[in-house]
Sequence to fold (408 residues):
Amino acid sequence: MPPSHFSTKERILDAAEELFARRGFDGASLRQLTSDAGVNLASVNYHFGSKDKLIEEVFRRRLDILNGQRLDALDRLTRQATLEDVLMAFIQPALELSREGRGGGAFVRILARAYVEHDEQLRSFLSDNYGDVLKRFAAALAERLPTLDKQELYWRLDIVTGALTYAMANFGIIRRQAGISEEQHMQQVMQHLVHFAAAGLRTA
Amino acid sequence: MPPSHFSTKERILDAAEELFARRGFDGASLRQLTSDAGVNLASVNYHFGSKDKLIEEVFRRRLDILNGQRLDALDRLTRQATLEDVLMAFIQPALELSREGRGGGAFVRILARAYVEHDEQLRSFLSDNYGDVLKRFAAALAERLPTLDKQELYWRLDIVTGALTYAMANFGIIRRQAGISEEQHMQQVMQHLVHFAAAGLRTA
DNA sequence: CCTATGCTCAAACGATCGTTTGATACGCAT
DNA sequence: ATGCGTATCAAACGATCGTTTGAGCATAGG
Fold:
């Protein structure tokens, strides 16, 4: 795709999102990436400095918006909000992102990769920049699970977020039932995810 | 570690398991791998033919045993066995593998990687060789979930297996409570995983 | 003793990787 | 027109990748 009305930086970020999701960070070469984007090989280092910085920017571009929406949704909840409401505030923005096209689905798959890879540099980048979001959700969930001790809560949260990330990554692949609109389908999937996660967190 | 009472093939497989879990298939080089194993660089291609074949052998060595144990446990169940019993037959062998040392924990982490990477070649290898195991468990679970239609069951199973794989991969990281034996800890974790998964599958 | 076989070794192969270079083109203020 | 910062380009850099080679070693069978 040689010409486009998007800037070179945006073309690179879009192509990176797609290729990283498909081949992983190590498996995706800058030559394949710039070829997909229709830009020169050197432009990655010119605009981003290095491949690692490009990876960080791929995350930053989406997570600034995604986690902002999550916190907004969390702030909108009252003290009477249920466990399910909190989970929905966390899940819904991600599902909408994966639904809205232009690489959103690919990005959610990248998130799942990052979750399982345990790469030290990437984890500390995410923790430094977005760790407060997870902490705020953990606190909100803890309020709604008073009988659970802290240690138990933490490793259940780990499983739940892992399961949710995996599920959201595969959300795009799930074929929806015939005669159901995309909006209805997302609502349906979210209901299931929320119930699933709530059941896992509440189990005695 | 130059000398060892293990054969070169076993040394390579052990080192591969550890390094693949830490750096991924692309990120782990044969030079680092053979250096860790204390063997010559060329021995990988001599004994396994290629890096890809080595990867397959890493899976085969563990999955032949693991999935055999899973099927044995499934066969031992009666028709009256509950949903939880079926899930336990699937989970317990994997948790015991990750507990028993000598790379078992690393292998479970590799499994989680394979699950999220969606690599075409690896997926078809696993599907060709071990697809029947998942099919048998899916059938056993479907019997215990008569109200769930097939399509709904399939994507819930996808989430549950993804969540379980992720959880089992992180099982080794979870610190156990003081004053609890390792055996008790595993039983405790398994109870939680089974309850978690059963709740997710049963949710209306 | 000799040879055949299985294995290990250092060294090199060509390919591909991320990154850097220097030339060139473009837009815009002076 | 001229100078200057910004962006793009083909080309090359050195490093590292998976893989192959061919000589060398050990040991078991005749």
Summary: The CA atoms of residues 143 and 200 of chain A lie 16 Å apart. The mean pLDDT of chain A is 90.
